[in-house]
Amino acid sequence: MKQVLAFAWYRSRVTFRHRRSGYLAIVLLVGLAGGLATGSIAAARHTQSSFTELLARTGTSNVGALVAIYNPTIGMGSGYYPALVQRIEHLPHVKDVESEVGLGLLPLGANGLPIPAANWYADGSVNGLGLQQSRLIVAHGRLPRWQSADEFVMDSATAKSWDMHLGEIVTFGVYTNAQTVGNPSGLHPRYRITARLVGVGTTSAANVVADQFDTDAGESSTVLFAPALTQRLLKCCADETIVGVQLDGGNRYDGVVASEMSRVLPKGVPFSAVMASVVIAKAERAIRPESIALAVFGGIAGFATLAIAGQVIGRRLWLDAEDLTVLRTLGAGPAMASADVLIGVVGAVLAGSLLAAVVAIGLSPLAPLGPARPYLPVAVNVDWTVIGVSLAVLAVALSGVSLAVVRSATRRHAWDERQRAGNRGSALVRTAAATGLPVPVLEGIRFALEPGSGRSAVPVRSAILGALMAVLVVTATITFGASLSTLVSNPSLYGWNWDYAIVAGGGDIPAQLEPLLNEDHLVTAWSAVYFGQLEIDGQPVQVMGANPGATIAPPVLSGHGFESGDQVVLGNLTLAALHKRVGESVEVGAPGTRPTQLVIVGTATMPAFGGTGGMHMEMGDGAVLDYQLIPAAQRNPYDQPQPGPNAILMRARSGTSRAAVQRSIDAIVTKLGGGSGGGPPLLGAQRPAEIIAYSNLGATPNLLGGALASGAAVALGLTLVASVRRRRRDLALLKTLGFTNRQLAATIAWQSTVAVGAGTVVGAPLGIALGRSLWELFAQEIDAVPDAGLPVLRVVLVALGALVLANVVAAVPGRIAARTPASLALRSE
Fold first, then answer.
1. pTM of the model
2. How confident is the model at residue 306 (pLDDT cuts 50, 70, 90)?
3. 98, 128 Cβ separation under 8 angstroms
4. pLDDT tens figures, 135-155
5. Are 565 and 626 within 8 A, CB to CB?
6. Domain boundaries, the chain
7. What span, in angstroms and rounded, lies between the C-alpha atoms of 765 and 449?
8. CB within 8 A of 370, min separation 6: which ones?
9. Alpha helix locations (H) across 29-73?
10. Do 126 and 82 contact (CB within 8 A), yes or no?
């Protein structure tokens, strides 16, 4: 081995000047393309984990909940109960509890009266919530100091609507709870305060995704005052209390603690917990499109790196095949002959792999993408897992290719087999010759299918395989993209299995409306539903209540819809969180009530839909069950005398416009004595975060396919140029036998057409099958109805485009072939 290495080192030094351009090409190709692939995959991982990183940086609560509200009718004469907060502090797994309250603060006009505002609600931090735990993110300025009673922050939208600017001093009126129960717009405040706006553009980490993706986010405002002012107003002017709870076990126990919190609240307080695990799951689903796109791009770039670099390495080693033969003739063994060329190529691969790591690290500050990016610092992030795996794949795979090529070239019997195979020719070529096709066509087919032998051998299989892989991936990408477009444009595939919904503004729809819908000729079907939050096997779950066997319900993915009161349909994520299967039983009930045992009869794609202003179901999260299981207090929060459903789901007659249906509903409401103002507005399809994010991808799948097609065209052009150079002897013979320049160019064109045509015939059907399979897996992953699109026209255009592109790419090699001097090529004959 010492002698082999000494010989290889000597030969590499002697031949380096002659081979250095080839080595440099390998280093740059592996380093730049491999670095781009590695950087993209690392960016995908960083993007997917960016929201969790943001939550950690801002100390977000594991559980947040409304625990007290000013409502004398249920015995709560104040909106802040410190004893209740203390009880929560002593619950199992609770590490820290911080709170904030709603304050009766309204900005005053010049007349000393509050300025009417729909998007204003002021909060005050009691002991750090918003300033320490679940710390607000401030785009401009800073958070208020704890001991400063004259400082506050607000979000950009509210600041813009009120025309308030950073540093401005604002006069507020302080109103008591009794005043705010009525309409305080015409009342003078108890007293006034002035405060300076010290931060603008505030948002919580939990709202970062909701601000961009949540259709129910609405126009809520964020206005926060410091504890110094809040402590002064707790007894008179705090109308509700929200707590943030951090746990010893992190999100592991958030469901358990939320359930325990609901049990310590006074009866009548509406309880709705916001758990960090649910927020994280929603954010990760919303961010997933960007991370998938980056990962796919990185995978394509990595595949291209291996394919192109493998061809370059193979061509470099194949050119040295005769040197290996000479060395074997002079007595060198297989190991010594192989080491002669391997040491340089493997060294170039290793150097290129290290360069790829440097490039990937250099690209890391560009990540993450997505909604969390503006709130995270720009920094170098080294993902050693991705870099290590990528280095290993590049080094091992390309070194393996090098070794395989060298082993093949150093075996004399393999060389003889290739020569004999070349002499026998292709059966397809012999069949084509028997049909009487023109000679340029026959020669083009022969060039495309027969590799030749010796130094004129051409890697025809790699050209066909490259075309096949390019068409396969492009077709699969187009099929996947068409399925994505089908999903985005069809609400029934993501849970909205109806046309419109009538939603009560936080209350109930009059019960008298329901029978009148049966008389409306524009409404073909309708179902009444209720919303709430129940505990299923101890875990809080957002639910939709309906009548068993309702005409309209979310689309079923497995099993069937619930047909009796003892059945329930779950989202797949909820089913997995409960560790249950279809056919098993669960216990369902509200906190403090006796649970009811229900049988899971199916899974469904849940709509992004629910009670106004609260948590709602998601595509894979939620339950559909008998509405009578939802307590009356949840179904009828405002204690109306004749309560109706929280929403009515409707299907309209085909071809009916939304305006026509709205006029019909307005007429029904007017008939019921609702005045001339019309009825509630119809709610169209509410797109969940995933669908909004996927629609934002736009043409990304097609751009990825186009990038791969462009790379395939370049690779095909290089292969044809190399083929012309290696077949100069064959081309010169054809020219000597009377071929014109046009016939030579036609020969190269037919060579390209046959290679690409063979790849297209096999690659297109495989691409469609691959695209549909990937889409079905993807749809199952996001809990959508797996209805794949079949873009027949675009696939046909891809096939035709591939053939046209093959002829366009062959133009340059064809000119080279036509201009090749016969005397130069035949000088050695």
1. 0.69
2. confident
3. yes
4. 999 989 999 999 999 999 998
5. yes
6. 1-59+277-410, 77-265, 428-491+688-829, 497-684
7. 22
8. 47, 50, 51, 286, 287, 290, 291
9. 34-57
10. no
